[in-house]
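Input.
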Amino acid sequence: MFSIEQLQGILLSIAKPEVHISRADNLQIGYRVRVRVNIRGSKDFLSAVNRSLLQQSVTTKYKDKEHKLSLIHI
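Output.
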């Protein structure tokens, strides 16, 4: 398991953030903003990151295969 400080370092060093802005007719402002953070790595590493994030009440999605490496969406 990783500590909070180690998770912060992982997110700062290897995570790839994505921001998606899409039009939403059902909202007053009219746009929906979604932030996603991708972490790529080996299955064992991502499993440990996933467990550590779940302990901090952060929901994640784990993709077993994306091209050659595994992927986690936060």
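The CA atoms of residues 29 and 67 lie 37 Å apart.
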